[in-house]
C-alpha cells in the first residue's frame, strides 16, 4: 500500500460534517480527515501486522497517527519499548494518548515500570499524560497505589493542562476503587490545589461512590 492509497481509503470513509466537531474537541495541530473512531478501528483491523509499513507514512493527519497506534498495540514487548519514543511523539491530543493501550504492557507490568518513570521525567506533556493514563487502565491493583500516588504528585500538573486533567482523573478513579486510600492521599496535600479539587469534582461526578462519600470528599476541597 502507498500513502496516497491509504489517504484515498480514509477520505472515502470520512464524513465532512464530522471534521469541525473533531477539530473542536481534539485540539490537535494535525490535519483531520473526518473518519469516526469505529471506522478507523475497522480499517486498522484490516491492516493488522503491518505496523512497520505504516510507520513510514507521514504523521501529518490525526487518522494516520491513530492507525499507527492501533497497529502498534499488538507489538511484542521488546519491540514496543523500542518504538514507544516515536509512538508517543506523534501524540498531540488526548484522544491519541488515551486510546493507545498496548497489550504487551498489561502482560509485563513489572518490566514496564522503568518506562513509566522515564516518561514521567521526560518533561513533555503527552509523554507524562501517557504514563498517567497507562496507570489508569493497567495499574489498578491495591499494590499499585504507591506508584499511582508518586506519579500523580510529581507530574507537571501546573505546567500542562492535559497532565493536570490526567492526574485528577487518576486520583478520582482511586477514590472510586480505594476510597480510604484516596482520601488519605488527598489529606496529605501533595497535589496542586487545582488538580486536588478537580480530582474531587470528577470523583463526585461518578455513580460508583455513595452520596455520603461524595459529601465527605466535598469537604476536602482546598482554597
What can be said about this structure in brief?
This protein has 223 residues and is mostly helical. It has helices at residues 3-13, 16-26, 37-46, 51-55, 62-72, 77-89, 94-98, 103-107, 109-120, 125-138, 145-154, 161-177, 179-188, 193-204, 211-218.
Query: What would you call the structural class?
Result: mainly alpha
| Record field, number of beta strands | 0
Low-confidence blocks of residues: none
Shape: globular
The number of distinct helices, counting runs of at least 4 residues, comes to 15
Give the radius of gyration. Answer: 19 Å
Straight-line distance between termini: 56 Å
Tell me what portion of residues adopts beta-strand conformation.
under 5%
Total domain count: 2
Mean pLDDT: 97
| Biggest sheet details | none
What's the helix-strand series? Answer: HHHHHHHHHHHHHHH
Helix content: 55-70%
- Oligomer state equals single chain
What does this structure look like?
By secondary structure, the protein is an all-alpha fold. It has two domains: 1-107, no CATH class; 115-223, no CATH class. Helices cover 69% and strands 0% of the residues. The protein contains 15 helices and no strands. The chain has helices at 3-13, 16-26, 37-46, 51-55, 62-72, 77-89, 94-98, 103-107, 109-120, 125-138, 145-154, 161-177, 179-188, 193-204, 211-218. The longest helix has 17 residues, at 161-177. It is globular. The model has no long low-confidence stretch (mean pLDDT 97).
